[in-house]
Amino acid sequence: MVCPLIQQQGRCGLLGRSSRLPVVPVNLHPSFRPCQLSSRCLSRAQFFKREQQLRLIPCASAVTAPELELEKGGPGSTYADGAVAKVPVERIRNFSIIAHIDHGKSTLADQLLLKTGTVAARDMVEQFMDSNEIERERGITIKLNTARMKYRSRRDGELYALNLIDTPGHVDFTYEVSRSLAACEGALLVVDASQGVEAQTLANVWLALENDLEVIPVLNKIDLPGADPERVIREIEDIIGLDCSNILRVSAKMGIGIEETLEAIVERVPAPQNTTGDALRALIFDSYYDPYRGVVCQFKVMDGKVSRGDVVQMMNTGKEYQLDEIGVLAPHKVQVDTLYCGEVGYLAAQIKSVQDARVGDTVTQKKQPAQTPLPGYQDIQPMVYCGLFPTDTDDYQDLREALEKLQLNDAALKFEPEVNNAMGFGFRCGFLGLLHMEIVQERLEREYNLDLITTAPTVVYRCKTTDGQEFLVNSPADLPDASRREWISEPYVRLEMVTPTDYVGNLMELANGRRGEFVEMRYLTDSRTTLVFNIPLAEVVTDYFDQLKSRSKGYASMEYKITGYRENDLVKLEVKINGEPADPLSVICHRDNAYRTGRQLTSKLKELIPRQMFRVPIQACIGTKVVASEAIAPYRKDVLAKCYGGDISRKKKLLQKQAEGKKRMKALGKVEVPQEAFMAILKIDREAKEE
After folding, report:
1. Is 99 annotated as a binding residue?
2. Which terminus of the chain is less hemmed in, N or C, by CB atoms within 10 Å?
3. Inter-axis angle of helices 544-551 and 680-690, to 10 degrees?
4. 507 touches 497 (CB < 8 A)
5. What is the DSSP string of 619-634?
6. 169 is in an annotated binding site
7. Domain Tr-type G: where (predicted)?
8. Does residue 420 have a known ligand-binding role?
9. Residue 436 among known ligand-binding residues
10. What is the pLDDT of residues 446-480, one digit of tens each?
11. How large is the C-alpha radius of gyration of the chain?
């Protein structure tokens, strides 16, 4: 017997992704028996039987036909109903979700996708928009992601297109947040009802206000036993200055307040300006490399419209391409014929070079080009540098290509070639922080199957030589000799720590131990305090965040901003292994900390470097002066085992012969330094500060 759903719709609407037509109200026939082709309908039909007595009635936010003008998805469409709602510009809402890390952004995004029917319940997984394996493993968002949703408002009954951009919450990925906010007109500010306002909450709010966005405060996790909504509302009003009279009270985990959140987005987020008649200008806010289609760009149409088959021009590079495919992410790719101003989508045009479609570039049409490009994004300066070297020198070119493709997806990554005597050819890479560095290294190893050696991270110093030249130093190996240096300056940051008052003493001790200068202490509320310090960036980028969480039992948070450079009594601490300089292990540190750092570093290297057949001295030097030294004892054969008494001269002769062999071996032998040794500076910093 043929399934009556297939008879009426041509394909079973309950099959979700395999559907080609929207779900319409259908009365099931009394003799309905699911056919073999629709075996998955059975559990769905049973569900509707319990809820709606075998009558499929769409919810308030579902899309029904034929009331709406719909544009069919392309051949590769995997959208739930195979169609994208085309609505006027006045009914488009572009918004982002911003918050401190672990305040529930991804969970709220999941609930919005479920409530609007964008993703079927059976397809939903936690952190649905965090598609990267590393994001799921660590439970954090490291990349912005977009999704287009359809929602019918209860207020006016009209259909709206909602473009959601999910953003990271960690301080190292602030650049991702700023890029996503430039493509929005509004933002949901999510605040944990138990944690309250934290450092990255403030930083993201200022970014949103700088972009002139409508900020909607959302109080999340109201169902937790430790939630204190009234206290957190007072914090938002007093610290941020937002009006919380109509704040949204939500529990994303339990699905409470999701409908009210969607209504608030429709009512309070402004629609984009209607400039459909102007020349095309589209802002590229993200991109990635597809091995089959080349560079795929995500963009927002600021002015005009763009259609499949158009010949477009990148205004910064001047390159021209014909659009093979355009579409929207809903959240999977859905091909469409045309995108109008205010809409967010993607394009593929067989762009082979990763340099031809950079983030921040403006796309316009060749036949009717725009006169001026969009402002784009400010070029960001890396905070931390480290060396990346392939363990196999044959992988150098593969590493270069991998970095270029990754840079397309992560615009904050900078790199340049570097040659090292100990490790050969590699790259000097710049990052926004230690977490950013770890994520990039892990992505290179997983996604591109590379085996890498990473040197200890350093910040960018400034140096002036005796002949009056000033230049930047991002590696200790580039620092000139002390006889040619006039001064060295290091970057300072303004560090703000938001903490419960119980941990103020612990955090002040931590900052003072890292050469921090106290600026001020502000009481945000009766139980929360902000500590402000001026502190060298080199002291922050190693393990400061870990120590902050440890000393505050996880309750404190931090935010920092570069304030400038200062001259300090800095020296280059050079490490020699078996008399040979090991440049990757050299560090620039303050003279007062040089002896302690040298002792800790040589001691740690003694544990990490394997024993050899000859004695291996490890020395930490400032210029020609040795400030700390350790030695790894050699493996030694017992050459006296065959001597049963006899004259002592016989034993001396055997020992002398052995010593001469060890000496020749030491002159010719090379010490293999393991990967763990290059990260020893991080371990000794942590141990030295904890003592």
Report:
1. yes
2. C
3. 30
4. yes
5. EEEETTEEEEEEEEPP
6. yes
7. 90-273
8. no
9. no
10. 888 888 888 777 888 889 888 888 888 877 878 88
11. 31
